[in-house]
Every structure is written in C-alpha cells, then in structure tokens.
Write a structure and sequence with these properties.
This protein is 34% helix and 26% strand. It is α+β, with helices and mostly antiparallel strands. It is globular and about 60 Å long.
Length: 480
Amino acid sequence: MGMTLEQIDDCRWRIPRTGAMRTEGLVFASEAMIGALQQEEALEQVRNVATLPGIVGTSLAMPDIHWGYGFPIGGVAAFDADSGVVSPGGVGYDINCGVRLLRSALTAEEVTPHLSGLADALFRNVPSGIGSQRRDLRLTVAEERRVLAQGARWAVAKGFGNKNDLEQIEEGGALPDADPDLVSDRALERGRAQLGTLGSGNHFLEIQRVDEIFDPAAAEVLGLFRGQVTVTIHTGSRGLGYQVCDDWIRTMLDASRRYGIDLPDRQLCCAPLTSPEGRDYLAAMAAAANFAFANRQLITAWVRESFAQVLGKGDALLRLSVVYDVCHNIAKWETHQVGGRPRRLCVHRKGATRAFPPGHPQTPAAYRSVGQPVLIPGDMGRYSFVLVGTSGALAETFGSTCHGAGRLLSRHAAKRLARGRNIPAELGSQGILLRAAGGATVAEEIPEAYKDVAEVVDIVARAGIGHIVARLRPLAVIKG
C-alpha cells in the first residue's frame, strides 16, 4: 500500500498528518507486525478516522488492529464534546461485544474428571445458535424494554446472579441515558429470542486453568491463583445490536450530508455530538449495550447452574464469581486530561478495552490498588491473558488497550486452511475439549486464523498501556 510510517520506538509507529487529516495516527505494533499491516487497509482507516471533526489527540490503533467497518478493529478515537462527532462505524455492529471472566474455588485437578460432562452441560444450558429455547426466559416487549434500560441490573433483579456481580462490571452493568424508544421494532424483534445466547462467529464460552502468574500481588487482589479454574464468556448484543447499528448508519449517512461533514469513506458516516442525531444514536447504542450486559449476566447464571449440576456443589463451594466484565465496542462519555486540563470527550473504542489505572475513581474499589482488570482472549488452541490498566494507558490512549489477538486470516482463508482437517481432534490432542453447533464456525476460528496473543500483549506491556498479571489455558471450548 506504501503508506509512510515513522518508527518512534520498538512498539510505536506514527502516521504523519497529511491531506485532510486533522491529527496524526499512532499505531502500536512490532516491526514484524507493521510489515504485514502495510499490505492491509486498516492503516488507511486509522488515517481516515484522523480526518473526522473534533478529534482530540491522535487516531489510535492497538496491536490487534485489523480491517473493520469504517474504523479499524483495534481503533480508539476521542472527540470533543462541542466540536466532535459520533459514528456508528466507530462502535461497530456488535455493540458492547465484550468479555467477562469468572473465577472459581476449583482447581484443574478437581475439574478434569468432570470436564466432558461440564462441556456438555454448558453446551446444553447456554443457547449458542440463532435463538434461545430455554423455557425459563420468555420476554414480552415491555420486559425487553426494561432490559434495554437496566442492563445487567434487570437480570440480577430477576434472580440471574447477585448484586456483587454488578460491582465488577464496567459501568455497573448499565450505561446511563439509554432510550429503548429509539430502538426500532425490527431490532426489538431480533433481540427478543436472543437474550441469553452466545451467538456464533468469534463468540465463545471457555473453561480455562490459570497456568502462569506474572504478578503474584496483583493476581491475589484479582482472586487468581495458579492451577485455578476460570470461565471466560465472550459475546455481545446479538441481532439487536446489529440492527441498531444498521438502522443508524442510514440516519448518519443523511446527517453527514446535512451537517457538511466530508467523509473519505462513507462507512465513517457520523453526526455532531451536539446534534439530535448524535444524541439519539448514543441513547440507542446505550440501550443495545445494556442488552449485551444483560446477555452476559444471564449466561453467567447458566454457567453457575451447569457447574452445580455436574459437580453437585452449591455456590458456597464453587464460588464462581465475576472477576470483571469489559466492553469492546462502545462509545462513552469520559473526562480525560488533555494538555493539562480536564476535557469531556466521547471515546470510541472499536475492538479495544478500557484500561484505567490504579487509583482511578472508575476502577472498581476492590481493584483500585492494582488497576482495572483487562481481559485479552486469544484463540481456542493457545491461551488468553489477564492484565490490569496503567497510568501510561490513561496518558497516551485515553485509558485504552487491545481487546484480543486480532485476526490474521479472513474467515474464507481460514476455512480454506482448515479444509480436510479434524479440528476437534487436533484440539483434543492438546487436551482441549470442543463443543460446537457447526463445523463452519470451527473452521473460521482455527488458531492459525489469529495472531499469537502473547506477541500482542507483549507489545502492550512494553508500551506501558497494560500490565500482564496471568495467563489462562483452555480446557474446554463452547462455540456457536
């Protein structure tokens, strides 16, 4: 592609300001990664985001960057409250796709004899296909609107979890100012049968063991120890969030023209944050984000139910508690120091994770001595990482870091590479059980389809925008 990049150090690259760019781009990547990135369109997307009105600081890309709709996945951009814009492409189609980590009182040795039964129970109890067949959850339209307003708090109020869960969820499990009336009937219809479902694609549910502790003091604060069994839940707002994004892209295309915003790519369609369209999109997006918080809360309840059924132990012995729940695709109002003074900004994180440091008022009280937990899943054959946020992230990336390994191969290319292979048997040879609704998703999600997440978090750590605490290895993977 031939884009000019200036190397700042061994993990930072500057995209100089040229043409219509209002600011520079800043990419976190190794020298090996940047060579491959220069063959992709994602860096061009970093440059395009830098042209949008009211952008503050630099147009940022995390080391898991790859092409996305409008903004790159792994992109972060903050916009001034008065002169900036909000863009559905800066949030993504899966609004509040995110990750939740549960810890347990169990060791891998205790769980291994029951692993097959646990995988079967999770596959049975947590719906993973298009819709849910569970008989204990049937939503009326009125109840669904309450979900959109209250998020995970709705689920806890209905008996799916407890109040302690809410303390360890970003924003307490519900974004403020959500307006269900701004969510279309079509979106409501798509969401009604999908609340409490895992979905397909890269979404998953995983039983893991903690196989390495890098910071024992921080791990103790997070309640993690070597050999411990954990569970990761990765899913989002399902068809409801997709439809909200789709609905508002049409509105934003009109708004961009009406407000005279020049777009280098129509997928960056947006509206001023001060406009009715901008305010309404944020309220609709918040409603979809709350659906996702409730979705992960329901799945948490069914994970606890599955462990209790198979192991014959109650909550007091299992102690399956929420370590943390983070958003990946979101736009949020936050106050950051810019040029030595506080400014209210709308921070877009598109395939990126909030990473607030120790002492930050929005870091949960239980973790304020070490920083907000940052959960970085890898692929189903290798490992995932737990990090904490840092002051470096707050200073340089609006308190953000990467969200995963980042795709290396397209879904089509991954399927081609997987052709003729027995992926479940390959994983089984490594001691990893796989339960999946279909072979196509498994083929798309082979480990080779992703970067090695260890290389990604190494860049994050060396750049000072995240601090590594622990590594988790998969024992059983549930895919939609």
